[in-house]
Amino acid sequence: MADYKIVFTGPVGAGKTTAIASLSDIPPIGTDEAATDMTRERKPRTTVAMDYGLMKIADHERLHLYGTPGQERFDFMWDILTEGGIGLVLMLDNSRKHPQQDVDFFVTAFRDYIAKTQMVVGVTRMDTHPAPGVSFYHRCLAAHGLNPAVFEVDARRREDVGTLVKALLHSLDPGLRP
Amino acid sequence: MPVTTVSIFNVPERTSAQFAILFESPGWEKVRLLTMGKPQVGVVDLDSSDPDRVWKEYRKRYPEVPSVILSTRPQEREGALWLTKPVSPAALKSAIARARKGFAPAPQPARTVVSRPREDVATRAATTALDAEIEDRCCGDAPDIDPRNADDVARATYCIQGHFQALLSHCCALVIRDGKSRAIEGLPGPFVVHRNGIETTIRPNVLRSVCLIALREDIVHLRELAGTAPAPATPLQPLAPVLWQVALWSARGRLSRDIALDVPVRIRHWPVFTRWAETPNAMRITALLVGAPHTPLDAALALGVPHRHVFPLLSAAQAVGLLESLPGHASTPRIREERRSSVDRRGETEAREGERRESSDRRGILRRILGRLAGR
Asked: Which of B39, B91, B231, B281 is 20 to 30 A removed from B105 (C-alpha atoms)?
């Protein structure tokens, strides 16, 4: 059995769990529990260990979809999650107060992983919070020397999340034929 | 490609006559309606109270003929491709061509695909139809050009001046500069550009037609809206996706004359493909040109894609300010692995061979994930 992995990360409530559920062939396995700290304001239940989904690619190939916990206090999990991964999907919530801080935090936390693989960025809640726009995130990422795909997404829509992952695959290999 | 003979089954006489007219139209020279004998492709309408019975009758009459099923409901039948209604002419043409070729290109490692959600059946058919429509409307079907042939170059390039794309770009620039809304008058419906979006009730297929004709300045013109513009009667459409779409329609497989064929270009950022129209191979072309500048022709060569896929994407990227021309910059074509000659490979060391195999394995898995996402 060959196993591959894509890691979804981002702040609490950005849509990681939902995005994984949109793609997964199995009911996603979550480790949510009632939030007991400041995260409760954004999401009544939050992922404490990780989310897990699975896409069956072929008889002997599976793509694992891992979601990191949104809370910084669980960041020791991240190195374990990213081991052997093929890329990173950073989910950002456009309604948060300090989006630049979110970008800086996650890009710094996953710097080594991004250097080895590729990343794409999905921005949620742009329908209700149109500002800042996609170009704002491009500027934030450019400050880190990065120029990944940044797409507006609705994490509930498989088409949106699929397009984001397709961009990740083409970023890894532009020669990839559909 | 030779002429494909097609028979239509289980449609009313009136619809049959419409098919006959369609197949006689320009662009359908390679399809011929057959009323007697065995066709090369069958088209069958399965929207009936008993689709199983219709299919059985159809197969009795045309056993083993590659078929295209028209239906509003998902249909999985052996040797047939399903098109969901309403079916566009472009999607039908593409489906007939695919059926004629035995549904090529066959999705690679089809045998290894495991069971998957039912949704994918519908997704695959819908995607096929949509892809064909987008390709027809934005890329056309022109062959690759020889850049040394002036006629080829003239055919594959276009000037936006005097067309709707130029007027819309100019209007957007004015509105962004001074914040004053403007109406484009003389179109087949209201079209108002506000700073935060476009207000229009013109249907996309009508707007596409407007993009393809030269506009008369005495009929179509801008008018600045005095004072505060009234509240929009329809939801506003963001400027960039509309401008992007208008540029794709206007280009229809061609390159804007403002972009040189022999000057390297770079795409500054990825277009927002979750919200903007994605043309065939758009992601591959974008990934290449975000990473390294190439001339338009080198980009097509490096990826092994038709010029008609590269040109409209670059024209649209330029329309929304995402394209950067880099005169004097070296183009860096990445020739596809499979195009490298065997002579080139002879000198490879074992280590390089190993690397190549690893890269090929990796491409294989990425390709299979991509296929899975596309519903194949």
From this structure: B39
